Fold:
Amino acid sequence: MNNSTSPALPVSGLFILPGVTLMNARQSFCDGVARRDMLKIGAAGAFGFTVGLPQMLASQAHAASGSSPSDKSLIIVFLQGGLSTIDTWDMKPDAPAEFRGEFNPISTNVPGTQLCEHLPRLATQTDKFALVRSFGHRDSGHGPADHYMLTGYLPRAGFNGGLKPNNQQPAHGAVISRQLGPRGSVPPYVCLPKMHNSAGSAYLGSSAAPF
Structure:
């Protein structure tokens, strides 16, 4: 690894939800936040994106003005494996040597946030993305961990990670597909280049399965 090139990452799934509008001013509660907005905000949080008070207030402002933001799609790049977090995003420089990474942290353009010394360009763009460092699990197997990441649920007894799909619970994309449905001729939930084992719809049925 060096400062000028990025390492190749194993992209095992690209999840595209073409019709997802993250904030919308229609069908509101009395506070101006739409019911579907809450569903979509929750799904986005499960995928690792964060929506806070500024975004909620922006939705209320759109509701008050009568305008509606343009439609947006949600794209999830799922990396099955890749770089260790203690060597990239969560250096833990004050931890004992057996727990922290071997590289040095560098400051970013976000005060108090540090990244690996080999990510200098990302360090200048840290205000453009969100890091979630509070998430983890205790299963060293990729199959159960993938299921947890893509559904929000730990697998129960009898889980078979080799099945496709192996879902005991529907993937986030399947939930959004079921709740929002297609818009025009574009499928509401697409997986590229192939369907991930844990990207299925489970009990929601084939109508919510990915294209």
Q: What stands out?
A: The beta strands are 11-17, 74-79, 105-107, 114-116, 190-192. DSSP finds five helices and five strands in the chain.
